[in-house]
Design a protein that fits this description.
about 300 residues; 13 helices; 8 strands; eight-stranded parallel beta sheet; single chain; about 10% strand; alpha/beta
């Protein structure tokens, strides 16, 4: 079986909620239709953008079932599965039903602040236990520690075919460039930050796991695919058209920004679970204006 490819635009799925904070599966159904028809290359289920820490175990199982059933094999699915308890996560990987998924996205252990050797040993244990290939996820702004280029490259070299790539969200272009320059040929680097996708792909990254793709799958996937073709000239204006929105989607936290955008597009209710709250009124107004402007531009084409 061919190794799963991270090329293109993956979307980190949100979890739509109703006003009573229950999961809104009707809105979820509309969102999945939009993404599947809109050019997404793969979907990430139960990542950070899904507000996974606030979902019960039963809700997580139901989300997995629902997305698999709705997707019906049309797009590859990645499951977000991370923990700062290595042994517990190993047990989970060995016991969980992973049918229908192509890979596991697993974040650097958070809160514990492990050393680089601890990070290496954590992922080594996961690679040996997981029945699916692993995608590393480096996001120091959330977890409190950065996985160095050296640790990433060591894991890529030591576990070929088991650790297949990294979602890099360190914001450090020099670090990401070092990984791209020295990585094994079949190890793939993708952006974990929408705003960094264009510059990172000019260096040799192969795609993104996107937040903005929830709202603008067709436009953002076009930019990513133009980059994959080496057509950076035509991709750059698309990147620039989203520059202001990139910032606004995260100024009040993720996924508050993208949920605000989707609400302004009539896709979902603007509901999150505590401790997350909707964007400030001022942010909402700015996002509303950008959504309106982008809609008018699309209608005029």
């Amino acid at each position: 079986m061919a190794q799963f490819s991270l090329k293109g635009m993956g979307v980190a799925l949100i979890t739509p909620f109703r006003r009573d904070k229950s999961i809104d599966y009707e809105a979820f159904d509309r969102l999945l239709d939009s993404l599947i028809s809109g050019g997404a290359d793969f979907l990430v289920v139960l990542g950070t953008t899904a507000e996974t820490p606030t979902l019960t175990a039963g809700e997580k199982r139901e989300v997995m079932r629902f997305v698999k059933e709705k997707n019906a094999g049309r797009l590859p699915l990645i499951l977000g599965l991370g923990s700062n308890d290595t042994m517990g996560l190993v047990r989970d990987l060995k016991s969980r039903n992973l049918d229908g998924f192509s890979a596991i996205l697993s974040v650097v252990p958070y809160y514990n602040k492990p050393s680089q050797e601890g990070i290496y040993c954590h992922y080594a244990a996961l690679a040996q236990a997981s029945p699916l290939p692993l995608v590393l996820y480096n996001v120091p702004g959330r977890v409190g520690v950065n996985m160095s280029a050296e640790t990433t490259l060591r894991l890529a070299a030591d576990f070929p075919g088991k650790i297949i790539g990294i979602k890099e969200a360190s914001g450090n272009l020099s670090q990401m460039d070092e990984i791209i320059k020295r990585k094994p040929a079949d190890f793939q680097v993708i952006s974990g930050d929408d705003g960094m996708t264009f510059p990172l792909m000019t260096l040799g990254a192969v795609g993104v796991i996107s937040v903005i793709g929830n709202a603008y799958p067709r436009e953002f996937s076009r930019m990513v695919h133009l980059c994959l073709e080496g057509n950076f000239k035509d991709a750059l204006p698309i990147h620039h058209s989203f520059t202001e929105l990139f910032r606004l989607l995260f100024v009040d936290g993720n996924p508050a920004g993208v949920k605000c955008a989707l609400h302004n597009m009539g896709m979902i209710a603007n509901e999150l679970r505590l401790p997350l709250v909707p964007t400030r009124v001022s942010t909402n107004e700015k996002i509303h204006e950008i959504v309106r402007r982008l809609s008018e531009a699309a209608s005029s084409r």
